[in-house]
Amino acid sequence: MTEDQAIRRLLDRYGFGAGGTELADARRAGWRASLSTLLSPESDDSSATPPPELAPYQRGGKDEDPAAKKERKQRQRADRTAATIWWLDRMVATDAPLVERLTWFWHGHFATSLQKVKDPRLMLTQNTSLRRLGRGDFRDLARSMIIDPAMLIWLDGNDNTAKAANENLAREFLELFTLGHGHYSEDDIKGAARALTGWKLNRKTGIAKLSPRQHATGDKTILGRTADFDAKGFVDQVVAQPACPRFLVSRLWFRLVNAEPPPDEAVDRLVGAYGPDRDFTALLGALAEEDAFADSTTTLVKQPVEWAVGLLRAAGVRPSKLEPKQQQKLITLLKGMGQLPFLPPSVGGWAAGSAWLSTAAARSRIELAAMINKAADAELTEADPAAVLGLDRVSDRTAASIESAPAESRLAVAACSPEYVVSL
What we know:
- By secondary structure, this protein is mostly helical.
- It contains 23 helices and six strands.
- Helix 7 packs antiparallel against helix 8.
- The N and C termini lie close together (about 10 Å).
């Protein structure tokens, strides 16, 4: 793989694609300088896309008036839409793409869904934590997630008390978030569940606090150590296990490098970069240096949100500037492709690979590409679509399809090509 091709892959995997000007700037800077800029952006652009102001979440009572219920439901749908459009807009507008790409990775890792949480304010709180803590010490992020308000609802931590310990959060935290299957026992889950008892969410304030009366005190045995563990102590015990960094490396590799498991020697190198400080930025830097990262024989199918955000960025289309009907269409078509922010299908997150290449997803992708194409600046739709999307090379078949399409739809055709749908 040439340096130019390696830079394109870097922008694709550590951001949301390599649109024309972004790619040209990176190539002038060179691969190493581009990696450094991605890893250490000047800011996270938080002031450019302030989060929406959402109404306090309300549950309906048994005697709720039908008209009031209708109004409440409409307001809640509007708030969900506002939260979703806000994050998509932030991904499109950011000058720090790795910050948002990593926030997106963590959202799929600590997968939490509005389907059960209901309150988009809590999802935005979690989103902020993922962004703020996701590039540093993993222990800080894990400590935050174990008592995160949305997570407490999603995995029943809010119902976990000394009298009736609920094991759901403890089990998923061990299996899906930190260690992986086979590195803990059922007794570890029981001890962990007791360590996590007593955390209660105030629905009105959106704040979770420990209720000492509902917390199980006394010794618990977790992963070979016996102590009076609480939530913080439990997390510290888990992230100290040798299996934890190896599990995290494999998850990051799966999403950013290759669907095939990493070789042991690569895992060893990456765990070394992660180090005793559990530094995720250092891990990302080391990952980009791996030979496999620039291996031209490996490809990853873009997840629908990654694909759509990359196209929106290249086309200069901000979701926040779309008409309300177009915003709703954007959400509907992403849902048709099988992926929408704040709505992962399960605690395991979203699928990867060829699962995104279904016929139904292709229809939604074509329709969404056409909508974005229509909303793009005229000068972009008149330019070479492959250049706009940062495609260095396309097959003869793709080139013929682009050439035969009407001028006003060529960008959409290129965006639906295998060369763009797949991260080469």
